[in-house]
Structure formats: structure tokens, C-alpha cells
Write a structure and sequence with these properties.
The complex is a heterodimer of chains A (276) and B (256).
Chain A: H1 2-25, H2 28-48, H3 55-58, H4 61-73, H5 76-108, H6 110-125, H7 132-139, H8 143-168, H9 171-179, H10 184-221, H11 227-236, H12 240-274
Chain B: E1 2-13, E2 16-28, E3 33-37, H1 44-51, E4 59-64, E5 67-68, E6 76-80, H2 91-95, H3 97-101, H4 106-119, H5 135-148, E7 153-157, H6 165-182, E8 185-190, H7 193-199, E9 202-206, E10 213-218, H8 234-255
Parallel strand pairs in B: 3-8, 3-9, 6-7, 7-8
Antiparallel strand pairs in B: 1-2, 1-4, 4-5, 9-10
Helix pairs in contact in B: 4-5, 5-6, 7-8
Classes of the chains: A mainly alpha (276), B alpha/beta (256).
């Protein structure tokens, strides 16, 4: 089992290099080196397969490419990608809205936060993935159970960040607003939430990959579509080329999501500096 | 207008109790400018917080315009050494914040904010953010914000402590001008005796913690005062020396 793991790396590394190259490194030389490294690793993979390691375990780049091409040409890949993206995005939205609401509520209500503290700590300590069977029972085999798993993973991250942000709000700003006749609702919407905004964004940002994890995991446990289902299905068919092909797609999807978050964050920061 | 009857305040931190203010009785008239001076950390700020209704006194009572202060006192404006401006709002939006809270329409907010901005000498800075301003400008924004919502009493807690000498003078001038125009009552906490005598009608000297009133002195200097030159008059010197004599005892005891 170590062989596939060790050779799964080239695919991942190459994706990262392609992603980080133009942005972070900028220099054409480094990009060239990164592409070369990727090519060498692919060649080594292709060469090792069947000679050093059984093709059954590590497949080879050509087979992986063929598998990917087959799924693209019959369109099935896009159905699976869409299912995963759908669950990820909806789960992310539900989880972050719930997380922000919970975080603000507990942040401004000392009574509620002390009351719920032991329960939330226990829930937070629980590996959320273990809830998956429960969600399948509650929400069935469809996309709802994947959304629920993604949402729960996101919820706690966003909640903890929002809560910390709300607790960090400068007490003097709140007192100042109260002296200016601000109602409790105004204090929350005009002082506390804007003040905690950077914390909330930090929580949202780190939780995006977790939404994807939740969706893929949910699909691996019980589904009939989605990238998680596809990787699980390929594995159960002893189709290592299929497994690698899906892994590459998932990695690309994760990179695309991270890029999207960075773009949104950049926009948001501009908006925060330029306008109100 | 503001009456303090035997006000004391004790803070409890775990097993430790700290007496911040002990048995202060005091009456402040409308439109009066009162400076409270004393060693750092003697409980002067606690006094202001109680007048603002942010802290409840441990014993005694505070009467503001005939009513006992039991909740946040929304008739007062509060200004501290820290600016307490909202960092994500521009100068204009910070100044218009009290109007926004009161539900004024956007057009009116902009109009009135711009008037006040011009009045405190912040023309051209309406679209700047607090972090882009100098310390003195941020103080102007605070004064403008207090002005716009018509706080009848200004509670100032060492507002100009972080400014250099020239800026301080400019702010003193602005403060006296605004107070005279609006007829604001001002309670100023400071540890700068020069500032206290320059601005106030009456100076109260506090002892070391727990703060009690050690001395009360009327400052009989004519108004309007020229903040730059008033300090070179003989009357100023007399007031200053008399107060310093008493204050020195407090500082001296503190050193020991």
C-alpha cells in the first residue's frame, strides 16, 4: 500500500506547482523548472509502472489520462463534478450562515455562551465525520446528507472564529455607541459585526477546503454520484487508474476553490478600504 | 446639573478589593467647565464612567438633571485618550454615526456632517479613514461627533494626553470655542495642571487612590481665554502655584 501513496505525490505536486508558479514565483525560470520536474516525475512514474512496481497498484500516467479522457468524452465526469461542487457550495453557505449567527449570538450573550459551553466543546471535539451515518439516516442517500456533512464541518470553524471576533470587540467602542443612544440591535449591526468582520472572513476562508472534504466524504460513504463516489467506486473495482484520475480532478477542484476564495477576499478588502 | 452624593466605588478582583473612589460629593452647574486633576490611576476615570452611567457607584448616588443615573446616560458625550472612532468608517461616516443611530436620512446626515467638519477644521478629510489621520485630527473628529449629536455634557478623560504641546494648544482653543458656542457642560479629567487651569472654571484636586477631593479652586480668569497667552498672566500663576502646592503633596506621598 505504500507504493500508491508514494506515487500519488507526483500528480499533487505538479498541480501545486502549476498553481503557485505564475502567482507566487513569477519568474519564468522557476515555472520552467516546475514543469520540467512534473514531466520528469510523470516519466519516472510511467517507467516504474510494470517494471519496478506492479501496474495494478500504481497504474501509469497514460492509463490515467485515457480514463480521464473517457469520462470527459462521455460527459459523466461533469455530472460527478457538479454533484460535488453543488454539495460543497450549498453546505458552505448553510454552514457559514449558521456559524455566523451562532457566533454572534453567543458572543453577545454571556448567559447563552456559558450555558452552551460544555455542549459546544463536546460537539467541537467530536470528529464531525463520525456524524455521517446519522446524516445518511436523516437525510437519505441524496445530496442532502452530503450538504449536511459539509455544513457541519464549516459551521464549527466559522462559529469559533466569529465568536472569538465578537469577544475581541473593543468594549470602549460599544460603550461609546451606547452613549450615543444606540439600541442593542444597532450595537450589534453597526459596531460588533463590522468589528468582527475580519475574524469572520478568516473563518470563512479556512473552512472552504473543509466544505469540500465534507462533500467528498459524504459521497464516499453512500452516494450514486459525485467525485467521492467515483473514487470509492473506482477503488472497489480495483481500478487504480480511475482512482488516480479522480484524485487529480479533486486536487484541481480544491485549487480552483482556493483561488476563488483569494479573489473574493481581494475584492472584499478593496471594498473595505475604498467604500463602506 | 450633575450632583454626586457621597459616591464611592469599590472594584472586586477575585479576593482583592480596590477602592477607586471614596465618598465624593460634588455639584457641577450647567455650562460649567470643571477639571478634575490628580495622580495617574487615582480613580478619576472611574468618576467619569459613573457619571456616564457605565459603572454603577458602590454607594451614594449620582443625580443628572434631577434624575438618578441608573443606566447609560445618553445626554453625555464621552471622549478618551483613545479615540473610539470606528476604524471602518470614514471621517464623515464617523461624525454622522450618532445621526445614523437616530435614523436620520442620508442626505441630512451628509449635509450636517459636512457643516461640522468645516467647523472643526477638517475640510478635505471627509473621505479619510481614522488610521490615515494624525492624532490631533482624530481628536477633531471626536469633538465634531460630540458636537453633531448635541451632547449637553462632555466627559473628557485625558483627551489630549497623547498630543504634542502645539497640538494641545490648538485643541484647547477649539474645545473652549465649541463649549462657549454650544453651552456645553464639560468635565475634564487630566493630570496636566496647565491644561486644567487654562480650560476650567473650577479645578478639583483628587488624592491618590482611593480618590477623594483634596482641594477645590475656582479659576477666576476672564473668558474668552486666549489659551496661548493666558498662562503668562499673574493670576494664572497664582492659581497654578496654589494648586501645585497641594498636588505636590499627593505626588510626593505616592513616591514614598
Amino acid at each position: 500500500m505504500t507504493a500508491p501513496d508514494a506515487d500519488a505525490a507526483p500528480g499533487g505536486l505538479r498541480d501545486n506547482a502549476a498553481d503557485a508558479g505564475p502567482r507566487a514565483l513569477g519568474s519564468g525560470f522557476m515555472v520552467t523548472c516546475q514543469v520540467l520536474l512534473g514531466a520528469v516525475l510523470l516519466l519516472v512514474w510511467q517507467g516504474a509502472s510494470g517494471r519496478l512496481v506492479d501496474n495494478f497498484f500504481i497504474s501509469n500516467p497514460l492509463d490515467v489520462g485515457t480514463r480521464l479522457f473517457g469520462w470527459i468524452s462521455d460527459g459523466s465526469l461533469f455530472v460527478h463534478i457538479w454533484a460535488t461542487v453543488h454539495a460543497t457550495v450549498v453546505g458552505f453557505i448553510i454552514g457559514s450562515v449558521a456559524g455566523v449567527i451562532l457566533g454572534v449570538w453567543l458572543g453577545v450573550s454571556p448567559f447563552a455562551s456559558r450555558l452552551l459551553n460544555p455542549y459546544l466543546s463536546a460537539l467541537n471535539a467530536l470528529p464531525k465525520v463520525a456524524l455521517a451515518p446519522l446524516f445518511v439516516l436523516w437525510f437519505g442517500l441524496g445530496i442532502e446528507s452530503k450538504i449536511a456533512l459539509a455544513a457541519v464541518l464549516v459551521l464549527f470553524l466559522v462559529f469559533l472564529n466569529t465568536y472569538a471576533g465578537v469577544r475581541e470587540v473593543d468594549r470602549d467602542l460599544i460603550d461609546g455607541a451606547r452613549l450615543m443612544k444606540a439600541t442593542r440591535a444597532q450595537v450589534i449591526t453597526k459596531v460588533i459585526i463590522p468589528s468582527a468582520m475580519s475574524w469572520m472572513f478568516a473563518g470563512l476562508k479556512i473552512s472552504v477546503p473543509y466544505a469540500l472534504i465534507g462533500a467528498v466524504l459524504g459521497e464516499m460513504i453512500a452516494a450514486n454520484r459525485g467525485l467521492g463516489y467515483l473514487v470509492q467506486f473506482s477503488g472497489s473495482q480495483f481500478d487504480s487508474a480511475g482512482v488516480f484520475a479522480v484524485l487529480i480532478v479533486i486536487a484541481l477542484l480544491a485549487v480552483a476553490l482556493n483561488l476563488l476564495v483569494e479573489i473574493v477576499q481581494h475584492r472584499m478588502q478593496q471594498w473595505r478600504i475604498v467604500g463602506r | 446639573m450633575i450632583d454626586l452624593h457621597h459616591v464611592s466605588k469599590t472594584f472586586r478582583k477575585q479576593d482583592e478589593t480596590v477602592d477607586a473612589v471614596r465618598d465624593i460629593s460634588l455639584t457641577i452647574a450647567q455650562k460649567e467647565i470643571v477639571a478634575v486633576i490628580g495622580p495617574s490611576g487615582c480613580g478619576k476615570s472611574t468618576l467619569l464612567n459613573m457619571i456616564a452611567g457605565l459603572y454603577a457607584p458602590s454607594s451614594g448616588s449620582i443625580i443628572y438633571k434631577g434624575a438618578r443615573v441608573s443606566d447609560v446616560n445618553t445626554d453625555v458625550g464621552y471622549m478618551t485618550q483613545k479615540d473610539n472612532l470606528l476604524p471602518w468608517r470614514t471621517v464623515r461616516d464617523n461624525i454622522a454615526f450618532p445621526l445614523e443611530l437616530a435614523g436620520a436620512a442620508k442626505g441630512e446626515r451628509v449635509l450636517r456632517a459636512d457643516q461640522v467638519i468645516a467647523h472643526v477644521g477638517l475640510d478635505g478629510f471627509a473621505h479619510r479613514y481614522p488610521h490615515e489621520l494624525s492624532g490631533g485630527m482624530r481628536k477633531r473628529v471626536c469633538l465634531a461627533r460630540m458636537l453633531i449629536y448635541g451632547a449637553e455634557t462632555a466627559l473628557l478623560d485625558e483627551p489630549f494626553a497623547a498630543l504634542d504641546a502645539q497640538l494641545k494648544l490648538a485643541m484647547h482653543d477649539l474645545l473652549l470655542k465649541l463649549a462657549a458656542e454650544t453651552g456645553q457642560t464639560v468635565v475634564l479629567v487630566t493630570h496636566d495642571l496647565m491644561e486644567a487651569v487654562t480650560l476650567a472654571d473650577r479645578v478639583l484636586v483628587c488624592t491618590r487612590r482611593p480618590a477623594t477631593l483634596a482641594l477645590e479652586q475656582r479659576i477666576e480668569l476672564k473668558r474668552p481665554r486666549d489659551v496661548l497667552n493666558v498662562r503668562f498672566t499673574n493670576e494664572f500663576k497664582e492659581h497654578y502655584d496654589a494648586l501645585w502646592e497641594r498636588l505636590r503633596v499627593e505626588y510626593h506621598e505616592e513616591r514614598l
